[in-house]
Specification:
Elements: E1 9-13, E2 15-16, E3 19-20, H1 27-35, E4 39-43, H2 58-77, H3 80-83, E5 88-91, H4 98-111, H5 123-127, E6 131-133, H6 139-148, E7 154-155, H7 168-176, H8 181-196
Length: 206
């Protein structure tokens, strides 16, 4: 008898119908997903304002990272992460530019009242609860992300079927990042297996 697959989470874009994810419109959804301890995978989409990004694939090359960074910032400062603590959030592409600008989140929480009005936790504390996929083809950027956050927060990703989704480039980049064998195994399979509640098989990425 075939078993029905178990749904462990959902995928959403960084904006939905021109609404950012911290919009009060989504509160009932976050409440239910938190109750279920669901996984929410967030992938960027082209921003609502695309002037200056229409040519040269800049919406993919640059704006996707900005959209992810903006989503994380808004969910942090709005208190959404804090209000719905049992959602397991995964953000694609190493979390956009968050590994490189994360210190600014805490800086502005101290400087601007609006950045601390809706939450009691420092942004840096909230960021430690998030997960990020390893979709990048730049080993140095990947090493920076690994040094910024804990290795347990990273999950191997391929961006498939999105352009340029595929396995080889992302395997080679992860291997080129120079992780110790134990950490490479965690990122390539064990972290995801633990998060999703599935068995992790042995072997390497290839």
């Amino acid at each position: 008898m075939l078993q029905r697959p178990r749904v462990v989470g959902v995928m959403l874009c960084t904006t939905v119908d021109r609404r950012t994810l911290d919009d009060a419109h989504f509160a009932p959804l976050w409440e239910e997903l938190s109750r279920r301890r669901a996984v929410v995978f967030v992938h960027p989409t082209t921003g609502c304002s695309t002037e200056g990004l229409r040519e040269f694939a800049l919406s993919l090359a640059l704006d996707f990272l900005a959209e992810t960074t903006n989503a994380i910032g808004r969910l942090t400062y709005s208190g959404t992460f804090e209000r719905y603590p049992d959602i397991r959030w995964i953000f694609s592409h190493l979390g956009g530019t968050v590994p490189f600008v994360h210190h600014r989140f805490d800086n502005y929480a101290g400087q601007f009242p609006e950045c601390r009005r809706h939450t009691t936790r420092r942004p840096s504390e909230q960021l430690r609860d998030l997960f990020f996929d390893t979709v990048s083809t730049h080993p140095a950027a990947m090493r920076c992300a690994f040094e910024t956050f804990d290795i347990s927060q990273f999950l191997f990703g391929t961006d498939y079927p999105h352009v340029p989704g595929g396995l080889r480039a992302f395997v080679e980049t992860l291997e080129a990042a120079g992780l110790p064998a134990e950490d490479l195994a965690r990122v390539s399979r064990h972290n995801a297996a633990e998060l999703l509640g599935i068995a992790a098989e042995g072997g390497n990425l290839r």
